[in-house]
Amino acid sequence: MPLQVPSIDDRRYADLVRDTLARVPVHTPEWTQLSESDPGVTLVELFAFLTESLLYRANRVPEVSRAKFLRLLGVPLAAVTPAQGLCVFSSNRVDGVVPTLAQATEVRAGAIAFRTAGAIDVLPLESRAFVKQRVQLSATDQAYYELLYKTVDPSANTPQLDSYETRELDGSRSVSLSGDTVDGALWIALLATPGTTAAQAAQALAGKTLSLGLVPDVDGQPRTLGTVGQGLVQGEPEALVSYALPKVSTPADGSAPTAQYSALQPARAADVLNGPGIVELPLPARAADIATWDNLDPLEAGVGDFPPALEDSAVAGRIVTWVRVTPSSSAGARMRWAGVNATLIEQRVAVRNELLGTGDGQPDQRYTLARSGVVPESAVVQVIDTAGPSTWTAVDDLLAAGPEVRVAGSQAGLGSRVTDPRPVDAYLIDPEAGTVRFGDGLRGRRPPQGARIIAQYDVCEGRAGNVPAGAIRSGPGLPGGVQVRNPLPTWGGADAEDVASGEKRVSAFVRHRDRLVTADDFAEIARRAPGVDIARVEVLAAYHPDLGLTQPGDAPGVVTLMLVPRHDPVQPDAPLPDRAFIDALCHHLDARRLITTELVLRGPQYLPIWLSVGITVAGGHTVPEVRDAVKARLRAVLAPSRTDGATDLPGLADGWPLGRAVNRLELMAEAARVPGVLRVNGLKLAQGDGSDVPEELPLRGLQLPRLLGLSVELGDAIPINNLLGQGSGDGSGQAHSGARGRVVPVPTVPREC
Q1: pTM for this one?
Q2: Composition bias, kind Low complexity: at what positions (predicted)?
């Protein structure tokens, strides 16, 4: 029998008035006028109103008890997570001065403030990123270009040409450098600002440090936490990226120039293959070494190892030099955006020198911060007493703090020195509640009487910090002539946990105590990861999705988590976790797993399906109302996660179960359960390519159904081909293959622009 929590008193205003007036004939029979105009009835209504207010407060006693229990357990609510991003600065100063922006420079997207993660020199230049994207030519076009470039390799009877088109990388799409390009490189053109020449720009760049921002597309890469030590991530490319500038020279014999490059050694480089990062590249001290080839023959431009050919002559005329970025061929790098004068930013605002209060020397002193939304690990607390200011240490639990009076043990001799590694000047901060608590003397020092307590911390706006591209446009501390923008949306911001969610995980926290042992531990701890909002998590023990058609239990030592995020702006009906989502979970789970457990984090593999249903509507119901209800019911049944709180779907409380086949008769039964449906005349089920599914579509591994199209019509079900329209749109091309000798990349002119 389930344990129900009844209300202390569920009577309301109308119930109290009715019950009181019902007692009048028994206790005061002489009172016969019970109309609303009677003064006695008015008094009854007044006391019923006051009593209802008291009952409301009494019914909140269980809620208060739960909150007190949470506080006694020391289970804080998850704190707010700041958003992160990348911004680009530009300078239009004409005096030649290179502005330097210090670390923590503030930039704004409206009223939302961000801070830069590092210092940056805003160089007077612009940039455009390009790739040599491989294209497949028709036989006629291939023969034409072979004839045109026959002089490139006179020793070969038929030159081996690798045709490409120059495509710009602007953040709207990603490119696989190893699979989609002819040379595996990313080319960044450094452009002179309008009104300056390339020579003037090269002179201004000489000896400066170029801040190069790179944003890879890593959303599709799975993450595996191996069994050898904490923090090991197996199956990922190594951070091997080379950077080079053109080494321009004119042959003395008048022969054609050759493409040579000088390597650039980064002064500081982030792991740009596994996440957005900044690479600081020191440029040559001589302006003559910052150049590009400007006297190439039209048939030489873009050929071989030369930079890509540009059709826009206005852009080509502003090029100062190129930066070639070449990842390791085994890395499988996909790039989404690249640019210069870039730096990472984080959405936070600093609060400095806030006076929390004055110490009173009592145990368990508690103080409240003035601002909410405190960024975890950003707080610094100082206590200023007669001995001067001292910075105290933040601890996870005051039980880990030492006593303020050190006492030698019984085995220590008189006058012996006591060494206790536990911090004494310690405090405990709850970022979500914004409270700072000190010890009781036995576990942590008490702030003495009259001591001033000063706090410094950062606050953020949580999910509101996830702003779109181009939202960051200003900064109160930017020098004159310096502009800022964010080329990509910011990411990672999450609001603090609410009380209802915190109450739900109290029992789970008490049960597993923050260690990954049982399947419930994996699910609950994953849901508590900061910075992610999980709608569904499935734990598959002893299962590895890369081992083929295996079942849970076939791979001992491996645990696979299938994760469905609550929000996905790219495909809301079939959410997939992005790289920031997976990284946050990896960081949270790695320190809590057993050392012998290999942990695999994946999103679902969606199997597209089409549905067509024919129904007969019962009398008393409108056709549009019933049609919409049937569509909503089928979408809820096939949804990957349950976010609407539906409770009338037996066995589907968390979404469509893993490994459960999509059965045509089962879907007909679900449609028949909708009020107003007299009969289901038929249901057609098809796969993503339109092929018919007679009875059921089996699902294996991490597969879940994704409804591409749904039709509910009065009468018979319409054919699936009517839903498909002009076809599935299969645009797969053939990979470039064939025997090769020397391969020469050559530019081609697109037929359409």
Answers
A1: 0.67
A2: 733-753
